[in-house]
Design brief:
five-stranded parallel β-sheet, 35% helix, globular
Length: 203
């Protein structure tokens, strides 16, 4: 890995819980980041609800909007980890708000007319004690691709607990083998793709 370009990953955790309350989606996001660290990537976590992110579809909504500071971290990253819990079968309102703010990137283009985030890789992590991970990842991948991110093969990891059991991912004593395997594959594929795009950007 020493011969490869260095990488940096940013996890945007879209929990409804403010810090320091435990968050299952943050737990899974940090497991993804740990797997990416094994691939040589540094990383950072932002729990979006801890910041005053205004609703809207511009890169700066003014009046105390803190999205521009988060956006600077995004622009400095090679890989985005988009993490959300499942509520009533859908991503959280916080996650939807992040996708709406990312829509502003369509107006922020480089000399070729592409969004400036083109060439960055995005992966998704979903937790929930109800079904919905496939639906959420499908919606997220479409939106992230629309604004310029590139999606790697098998770029999602998720955990769905037993329906109506009340058991959260945070409650587990250890990571299930299937989740750990999916997370590892996600990290390997994301890092590989990010290095390729960093070495040879879209032209």
């Amino acid at each position: 890995m020493r011969d490869h370009p260095s990488l940096h990953a940013l996890a945007l955790v879209c929990s409804l819980k403010a810090s320091p309350e435990p968050s299952s989606s943050e737990k899974l996001a940090r497991e993804v980041l740990a797997a990416l660290e094994e691939q040589g990537a540094s990383h950072e976590v932002v729990r979006v609800v801890d910041h005053d992110v205004k609703p809207g579809v511009e890169v700066d909504m003014g009046d105390g909007d803190e999205w521009p500071q988060i956006r600077e971290k995004l622009l400095a990253a090679d890989i985005l980890v988009f993490a959300t819990p499942t509520w009533v079968g859908h991503m959280t309102s916080v996650a939807q708000g992040v996708l709406e703010r990312l829509d502003g990137e369509l107006s922020e283009t480089d000399d070729t007319g592409r969004p400036v985030i083109t060439g960055k890789v995005a992966v998704v992590a979903v937790v929930g004690n109800e079904d919905g991970a496939h639906h959420i990842s499908a919606d997220a991948f479409q939106a992230l691709s629309d604004v310029g991110f590139t999606i790697p093969a098998q770029g999602v990891t998720y955990w769905n607990g037993e329906a109506m059991s009340g058991v959260d991912y945070n409650d587990l004593d250890e990571t299930p083998g299937a989740v750990a395997s999916a997370t590892q594959t996600l990290a390997e594929n994301a890092a590989h793709l990010a290095r390729l795009l960093k070495a040879e950007p879209y032209s």
